[in-house]
Amino acid sequence: MDKPLLDVRNISKAFGGVIANKNVSLKVEKGQIAGLIGPNGSGKTTMFNSIVGYHPIDAGEIWFNGREISRLRVGAIARMGLLRTFQQTRIYGKMTCMENMLISLPDRSSGFASLLRSRHSAGVRRAKELLDFVGLYSKRYLYAGDLSFGQQKLLEFAMALINEPEMLLLDEPTAGINPTLINGLIDRLKRANKELGITLLVIEHNMRVIMNLADHIYCLAHGEMLAEGSPEDIRNDPRVIDAYLGAH
Amino acid sequence: MDNLNLLIAAPILNVQLLLDGLMIGAIFALAAFGMALVWGVMNIINVAQGEFVILGGYMTLLLVKYGLPPLLGIPFAAITLFVLGWLLYRLIIWRIVDADMFISLLATFGVSIMMQQLMNEIFGSDVRTAESGLGMSYLFNNMVTVSQIKVLAFILAFVIGLALWLFLKRSRLGQAIRATSQNPRAARILGIDTGRVYAATYAINAALCGAAGALVVMAWSIHPYAGLPYTVRSFMIVIMAGLGNLGGVIAAGLGLGAAEQFAGFLLGAEYQLAFVFLLLVAVLVWRQINLARKRQYLK
Amino acid sequence: MNRTTYHYLAIAVLALLGVAAPYLFPAYLSQFSKLWLFIVLALTWDLTGGQMGYNSFGNVVFFGVGMYAAAAVQVALYYPLAAYTAAKGGGTEFIFNTSQFLTGLAAGLPAAGVLAALTAVALGLIILGMRGHYFAIATLGLAIAAGELASGWDLIGAGSGMVTPTPPDSLDTTTLFYYLSFALAALTFVFLAWLYSTRYGLAINAIRDDEDKAEAMGHHTIRNKVIAWTIAAFFLGMAGGIFGNLSKFIDPIDVAFNGAEIGVWMILMAILGGKGTLWGPVIGASVFYVMKELFWTYLLGWQRVALGLLIILIVVFFPQGIVGWLKERWPSRFGPTAAEMEAADAKGEA
Ligand SMILES: Nc1ncnc2c1ncn2[C@@H]1O[C@H](COP(=O)(O)OP(=O)(O)OP(=O)(O)O)[C@@H](O)[C@H]1O
Ligand SMILES: [Mg+2]
Asked: Which residue of B has its CA nearest to C271?
């Protein structure tokens, strides 16, 4: 088998006394959709932050696409094609949805000169397609800050897609999304994976969603990797059931 | 660098500079307590801090003019500045508590330049000083002189720091202030009148500055436009100490005072202000590098 | 008539006014020169403050650096600088004939811009990593430290300042500097209007709205920030060069690095007109300049009180500024409509 696209090896991260991640490992193969679950405060978001370079890790290594990224900074990692969305959705509030999309076009290989082209010069069609893809086409000239929370989440997702990342880390993509939209969103995530070839790692609390979506699931509890396996294995794993029931 | 040789040749000079520095540093710390309080509780960086200090000095001079002992200026300045702080809060500051921090920087800057020129019109533009009536002490065979007002300032800074700490820990108002600083919404729900808490916080800050100013005018001198360096020093001290760390404020204040005395002596007095402001930039850069190493960002 | 027409009409009227002012208001020409320079100050402040969200108290550093740089080059082309400043510039031996004076300006002003820009690169790489008020206060420290340092540097006259080269009597410098100021303002405006229409404009807006997000999306945020400050510094430096010549005398603290006045005025002008808009700084500077002249004429001795009050009133009650207010009040007339945005996008698509 090929080397995994994302390879997290035994990383640990503590905040003062709180050990948020303890010796956790995780592998995501190219083209896969992987899931990451765990009770509140189990260290999922912390793990994302460690991967994308938001804070230094205390121990362990992170490899992406055959390169070690453990010590790179956020921007450099993003430019390698590893993007994340935020649990607390982040968009550019005082810019329109179109502008949000256009400035998220990939500029990885090109230098500063490409920024000096007109803002309408590239990607307009693609931006519209993707806004349509997430159902925001009719809102494209509204300020992103005026959208509802769920719509902002969808916009953030579209912004990540237009950046054509190799891999996308999604932090609770369905939180705050209307249940009737959730099925559509699952469908879109699957299509992004299949049609655009984007490898996904998804944090999710909604069991139905993650079972439906992921090929392989990791479960964190109290900062440690509790279990991993196919959705079927995870669903029937007594430790996972325990962790979820025990935490609430 | 002639002065450096001087320092090496006459080590006793170091003692003199160090003592002077520590004692002025204690006064810096006093104003910095106030800044830390307002910053921590109201999320406002008060640019008018230095003008409060200078006004405290003028309040003391006012007493002297009517023949009262200047030492009374310390409580008098504290009380008048407390009232002024309260009024300013009710007039202006309450509007910017929740605003973006740049708004509050600019608004308090507006207060500061108004106060500068008002003081200039009312008290005149001369450099002024007040005779404390305390004498000098001579140490090390008269090689080191220490004016006793500076010693008093030094001791008072500690006493007031301690009193402030006790006040915040023990008194009802102090507890309300701490509650509000942690979560104003929750505090309001619990029935705390946060408007009053903010007013009190801002007024206490002004009072602390006023007391510091009374000491400044007795130990050194003031003029209407001498405020900004005190603001900057307070800011630096708070950054170095971190919010909510009164002991750290004293330590940073003393350190800054000493550093300034040595810099002033070595570089020449005309560069002392430049040193203060460059040190500010250096402190910020140092903080930045530390944060960058942690791959972390400031909000 | 639609919005674009208004836009071009406003530009045409301003341009006409700019060209014709020496004939229309010959007595107020130096005031008009300063007004154009103030517009440059406000426009360049807004590039980082309004468009990028980096509020600087220290842009006056570039203004001052440019002022000294221009004067120094103007002098040094023909005389040893140290001797000139030592003689307080007034000595009768330092004569500039017309061609020397003009050559000095032609070399000095670009040099002012370049030196200011280099200063911005050096400072920006160090302090543009700071966020929010930490950046604002660091720049305040820089502005004041710069003034103090300049007051101690003998080569440029130290605390007693520097007299700019005296032009020959035959030269009508009032008109010359007027047209230079006007040209600089026009150049700055056109350049920024173009810059804001590019993807770079979006990139700095993104930094303003959420810098962490921009970085997480792979933007070169540091590079973009330094470039913005550098552009601002370049135009500011040239403005400083002209301003120094207009003032005829450069005092390190009261003219060149006057953070408490000019440094704050630029912020105020941008906010008064409307932060983050193209026209805001232009309108804000014009309104503010008139107010300032009135304060300084009728409220002498109290002008800072009035100014302080004005600052408080503006930032507390009117933070959105004139253009921001107009946009809120009449969004369809002053903000771009969806149809216009659609059309602009369509043009790019074709
Ligand atoms: N910056 C931080 N400073 C201190 N503690 C932190 C920080 N970030 C996270 N923690 C702590 O680390 C633990 C893990 O937090 P994390 O956000 O990773 O949980 P999570 O699994 O994403 O939870 P949720 O499902 O609620 O989003 C928590 O106890 C949290 O309080
Ligand atoms: Mg989380």
From this structure: B103
